[in-house]
Amino acid sequence: MQRPSRAVVLSGCSGGGKSTVLEDLASRGFATVDEPGRRIVRDELATGGLALPWVDATGFAHRCIDTARADLAHHERDQWVFFDRGLVDADTALRHYEGGHCTGSSACSIEELQSYHKRVFFTPPWPELYANDEERQLNFTDAVDEYSRLLDAYERLGYSITVLPKVGVTERSDLILAELDLL
After folding, report:
1. Which own/partner pairs from 149-152 qualify as long-range (CB within 8 Å, at least 24 positions apart)?
2. CB–CB of 177/183 below 8 Å?
3. Cβ distance 40 to 60 under 8 Å?
4. Do 64 and 97 form a contact (C-beta atoms < 8 A)?
5. Please, what are the domains in the chain?
6. 114: nearest Cα among 157, 162, 160
7. DSSP class of 125
8. Interacting residues of 67 by C-beta distance below 8 A, sequence separation 6+
9. Hey, is 181 helix, strand or coil?
10. CB 178: neighbour CB atoms within 10 A?
11. Contact (Cβ atoms closer than 8 angstroms) between residue 51 and residue 40
12. Which of 26, 56, 107, 134: disulfide with 32, CB 3.0–4.6 Å?
């Protein structure tokens, strides 16, 4: 019997505050893993690469899958680790970019996609927080569409979803830790 995973995903709407919550969890001593997509975009911009979502979306999504796989393989199984997005997010993006809208063929096995903790935390669309920058060129309407695809994907995979309220970062972190009995 496989032990319950301690790899917890924060997913949801781009620009909804995931990274800020992760920073708070890290300040409390928890292991965290930054979003694969942001790391890839930063690297591609610095090196003149083309695996960017606005240049080569499928190439970008494949890189996200590879990075998310490596991130998951690297974490300690007995340690709680909080991930800013994961394999489900990357796989959902790939299927969307390839025109599958969550029904196309998956680049990941079901076992891989279900390897995170059963509870996933979602940041909802929050227009007051949303901002574009050099790494996030997606408009808010597309971010909301992405949020809907991700909710559908996580639900279909049997995850229990907690949508975080639109409150301060400390309250969001406390809620996550309380739901995981880590407070």
Report:
1. 149/92, 149/96, 149/101, 149/102, 150/11, 150/12, 150/88, 150/89, 150/92, 150/122, 151/122, 152/102
2. yes
3. yes
4. no
5. 7-179 (3.40.50.300)
6. 157
7. P
8. 36, 39, 40, 90
9. coil
10. 10
11. yes
12. 26
What phi and psi values does residue 69 have, to the nearest 5 degrees? -60, -45
Q: What is the pLDDT of residues 91-106, one digit of tens each?
A: 999 999 887 644 445 6
Provide the terminal-to-terminal Cα distance of the chain, rounded to the nearest Å.
27
Residue length of the chain: 183
Q: If you count DSSP H runs as helices and E runs as strands, how many of each does the chain have, helices first?
A: 7, 5
The pair of three-digit structure tokens given for residue 70, joined into one six-digit string: 């490596």
Say if CB 126 and CB 13 are below 8 A apart: yes
pLDDT in tens, 152-180: 999 999 999 999 999 999 999 999 999 99
The predicted model scores a pTM of: 0.89
Closest C-alpha to 161, from 5, 30, 11: 11
Tell me which amino acid residue 64 is: C
